[in-house]
Amino acid sequence: MCHQSVGLIQRAIEYAGITTVSISLLREITEKIRPPRALFVPRPLGYPLGEPDNPNVQTRIMRAAFALLPRTDVPVLENF
Amino acid sequence: MARMDELDLPERLFLKGYPFKRFAPRPNDPVTTTMTPLRKPLAECTVALATTAGLSLPGQPPFDKTIKMGDSSFREIPSYVSLESLEMNHRSWAFDYRGVMRDRNLALPLDRLREMQKRGEIGAIAPHHYSFMGSIVGPAKLIKASAPEVARRLVADSVDVVLLTPF
């Protein structure tokens, strides 16, 4: 449900004129919701930024997500 | 890795039967299909965060876990917040909370944004960030009221980019 809520909030923000990207931990759900841009991170639920107290991994995931922002061929769903 | 077949049986059956199609993009509904292109380099963008981790400030009313269709309200989190002070109220039975209880950056990576701003990777950190609760089974209110309200507030703060994390 979390992924649906994120997708719905994301669409409302994108509709308001702001560029968005989300992180997905459940590819199958994100494929159904089709938010504009999402980065699939192969981590368990509860760990969208990878690991607690691991700034390096967290930053790498954020950079990969931000790298999708220029994409206009939406919906975009890339793997981390 | 999170895969459907790793979830508990009740959660899996629920997701399998849930009518996601009802909320999939529809060609005649611009809210579901609009795309906003990035208008400037990230290094010049104001960035905000949004999460469904159910985080709230100590002084804010906690999310209501008793609402059957899910609490679709949101909490505004100022960018100067100290992350450890954020409280968490969530009711999903699918999540492991130990990580985020240790490091709120897993949901709201404000410390990482602060570093990225210092390094010049992003332009500015938005003054407000937004926290929703997950497990919203009936998202009508979310679609009609809270998500558009948060979008308006982000526009008012001249935000260019939002990163969202699921919980």
Topology:
The complex is a heterodimer of chains A (80) and B (167).
Chain A: H1 2-15, E1 19-24, H2 27-33, E2 37-40, H3 55-66, E3 76-79
Parallel strand pairs in A: 1-2, 2-3
Chain B: H1 9-17, H2 30-33, E1 46-51, E2 55-56, E3 74-78, E4 87-88, H3 98-102, H4 110-118, E5 124-125, E6 128-132, H5 140-156, E7 161-165
Parallel strand pairs in B: 1-5, 1-6, 1-7
Antiparallel strand pairs in B: 2-4, 3-6
How would you sum up this structure in a few lines?
The complex is a heterodimer of chains A (80) and B (167). Chain A has 80 residues and is an alpha/beta fold. Chain A has three helices and three strands; from the N terminus they run H-E-H-E-H-E.
Structure description:
The complex is a heterodimer of chains A (80) and B (167). Helix content of chain A is 41%, strand content 18%. Chain A contains three helices and three strands, in the order αβαβαβ. In chain A, helix 2 links the parallel strand 1 and strand 2. The model of chain A has no long low-confidence stretch (mean pLDDT 94). Chain B is α/β, with parallel strands linked by helices and 167 residues long. Chain B has five helices and seven strands; from the N terminus they run ααββββααββαβ. The longest helix of chain B is centred in the last third of the chain and has 17 residues, at 140-156. Chains A and B meet through helix 1, strand 1, helix 2 and helix 3 of A and helix 2, helix 3, helix 4, helix 5 and strand 7 of B.
Q: How many helical elements of chain A?
A: 3
Strand order of the largest sheet of chain A: 1-2-3
Shape of chain A: globular
Which structural class fits the helix and strand makeup of chain A? alpha/beta
Strand content of chain A: 15-25%
Written as H for each helix and E for each strand, in order along the chain, the element string of chain B is HHEEEEHHEEHE
Along the chain, the helix and strand elements of chain A come as HEHEHE
Strand content of chain B: 15-25%
Oligomer: heterodimer
Terminal Cα span of chain A: 22 Å
The largest sheet of chain B is: 5 strands, mixed
Helical region count of chain B? 5
- Point out poorly predicted stretches of chain A: none
Judged by helices, strands and strand pairing, the structural class of chain B is alpha/beta
